[in-house]
TrEMBL record:
GO terms for cellular component: nucleus. This is SET domain-containing protein. It comes from Colletotrichum sojae. Residues 51-73 have a biased composition (Low complexity). Coiled coil: none annotated. Gene3D superfamilies: SET domain. Residues 28-50 have a biased composition (Polar residues).
Length: 429
């Protein structure tokens, strides 16, 4: 059975454009960080998309959380994971059945602000929305093209201020990288097939490992050709053969999966330029060892790796490795949040991003916490009174759980996030 990308977004709650998809909450939903497998959908939950995604993380500091939520050392768990949220209102613990989870460390009143996740490390805007969504703050004007364009890098912005901020944060290296990626997309044919066959076999760990190994012969040739382009002083320039040139041309002439390309390029830039501790925060997130939803998805990621080797600035080649891309995809798949429109109850799914500190909240079909995106920040507020010791949960189903039967909810969660929901609401029926 084949589904459109829109169906996939609500089917996988995410955009696994270096992973997979999400559901729709106040705007999006969050993903499980403690369960294996699956894809994110654009329904608004925090899940990575079909094989595109993104992300790196930063460890929240006192400035990355609400001032009123600053915690003293005595309030914090004894062992703090890199990038994990810290607050006097809650703590993160391991659980017997759901991996890591967040628990109230004191009574919390309804409406209380629990956390502000400001650690966006990597985001991906779907190609079809690149002219309508601000590349910096994700503003959207009901499908109208935004006025401030930067065609060389392939992004648009809602204001000159957002454009200037984006360019400043990207820096010279980022601008050169995005220009190279955009130039490749414009020159080459693109992979336009947005249909996802949910019955297609999913590659296992062995198949994934083998696919990346088989790509290394071509990758080594491309890397050698690129390094030969660089000034070497008095050293002798390595001899580049026809075989090297053919490897580069083969990568450049292959079809392009544009959203996977954006995810992987953003991931390489994130690893290269993140602040101290951010990559460690990504590594601390839950891992999906089989994040690719199909062999086609796996092939797209491997091909994207070769294309990035061929076009990215030479300074980024040390980070352009299978290890970088596989790490990003395996973490993003359970930890990405969908980026949706704010004006129309999230009816438009633009892409996804990774906020590591936000990915520690687990799912419940009867959530006690609600989240809302404000530009590049996620806010989490108590939807009801929460007693000390109670688990703090969000929904991955974006509000749809209210009208769904238990069987429908559990089937969707199993298919998209790979777990059997055992929340209180599911156990009551």
């Amino acid at each position: 059975m084949a589904l459109s990308e829109d169906a996939v977004v609500s089917l996988t709650a995410n955009l696994h454009a270096l992973t997979i998809q999400l559901t729709k909450g106040d705007t999006d939903d969050a993903q499980l960080t403690s369960y294996p497998a699956s894809t994110t959908t654009e329904s608004g939950a925090a899940t990575p998309l079909t094989s595109y995604p993104a992300s790196s993380a930063s460890r929240p500091s006192s400035s990355s959380s609400a001032p009123s939520l600053t915690a003293s050392p005595l309030d914090q768990p004894k062992q703090l994971l890199p990038g994990a949220p810290v607050s006097p209102l809650f703590e993160i613990r391991d659980t017997p059945t759901a991996g890591r989870a967040v628990f109230a460390s004191q009574n919390v009143e309804a409406g209380a602000l629990l956390w502000r996740a400001e650690d966006l490390t990597l985001s991906v805007l779907l190609r079809e929305y690149r002219r309508e969504v601000c590349g910096q703050c994700f503003a959207y004007d009901y499908g109208r093209d935004l006025p401030f364009r930067d065609p060389a890098v392939g992004f648009v912005f809602c204001s000159q201020g957002c454009r200037d901020t984006w360019r400043r944060e990207a820096g010279d290296l980022g601008l050169r990288a995005w220009t190279a990626v955009e130039s490749l997309v414009k020159k080459r044919s693109r992979e336009e097939d947005n249909m996802v066959d949910i019955d297609a076999p999913k590659p296992d760990e062995g198949a994934i490992k083998q696919a990346w190994i088989e790509a290394e012969t071509q990758a080594e040739l491309i890397r050698a050709a690129r390094m030969a382009e660089q000034p070497r002083g008095d050293e002798q320039t390595p001899r580049i053969t026809k075989q090297h040139r053919k490897a580069v041309q083969k990568a450049l002439q292959a079809p392009i999966a544009t959203d996977v390309l954006a995810f992987c390029a953003g991931g390489v830039l994130a690893r290269h330029g993140t602040a101290p501790g951010r990559w460690e925060a990504v590594l601390s997130l839950a891992v999906d060892e089989t994040p690719y939803i199909s062999f086609k998805d796996l092939d797209a990621h491997v091909q994207t790796y070769l294309q990035l080797l061929a076009v990215l600035p030479a300074e980024l080649l040390p980070q352009t490795t299978p290890e970088t891309l596989r790490t990003l995809t395996s973490r993003d798949n359970h930890n990405a949040f969908g980026i949706r429109s704010l004006e129309d109850e999230g009816s438009e799914f633009f892409g996804y991003g990774c906020w590591p500190s936000a990915s520690y909240f687990n799912h419940s079909c009867g959530p006690n916490v609600f989240k809302k995106r404000d530009s590049r920040v996620w806010e989490f507020r108590a939807g009801k009174d929460i007693a000390k010791g109670g688990e703090i949960n969000i929904t991955y189903l974006g509000g749809d759980e209210q009208s769904m039967s238990r069987d429908e909810r559990r089937a969707l969660l199993r298919r998209n996030w790979g777990f059997d929901c055992g929340c209180k609401r599911c156990q009551e029926l």
